Amino acid sequence: xxxxxxxxDDEEGIRESLAEYLALQGFDITVAAGEAEAWDLxxxxxxxxxxxxxxxxxxxxxxxxxxxxxxxxFGVEPYxxxxxxxxxxELAADALHDGMDDLLRKPFSLPELGRALDKARQRRRASSxxxxxxx
Length: 135
Fold this sequence. Notes:
- The protein has helices spanning 12-24, 35-44, 61-71, 89-97, 110-134, and strands at 3-8, 27-32, 49-53, 55-56, 59-60, 79-84, 102-105.
- With 135 residues, it is of the alpha/beta class.
- The protein has one domain (3-134): 3-Layer(aba) Sandwich (Rossmann fold), CATH 3.40.50.2300.
- The protein has a 5-stranded parallel β-sheet, sandwiched between helices. The chain has a two-stranded antiparallel sheet with strand order 4-5.
- A hairpin with a 2-residue loop joins strand 4 and strand 5 (59-60).
- The protein is globular.
């Protein structure tokens, strides 16, 4: 069964191309155009991996990730990858401090995204192993 991934970007072309790539990587993709839509989707089912753009029009991918990390819908802490096209180095530090697991600066290559997804999978496996060892 494919792992669920929530992809959030306000640009339709980027959403479509990334969704296609992510599906080829074996993920079950749900897309959202903004923070509010993504938040509603995350309340309906768990997403172990969230990939979000930083700037979502008037909304913020970082704000979404902070909310998801704090609320932990379904008790699942998502692995969060933030995509950003601009911003100073402090942004990266702030984002990582605020719960970001990985940061991709645009333009990034698909292999870079693939490596971030590999890290997400590794963390999920380690988390699963930890839970099974606790039983």
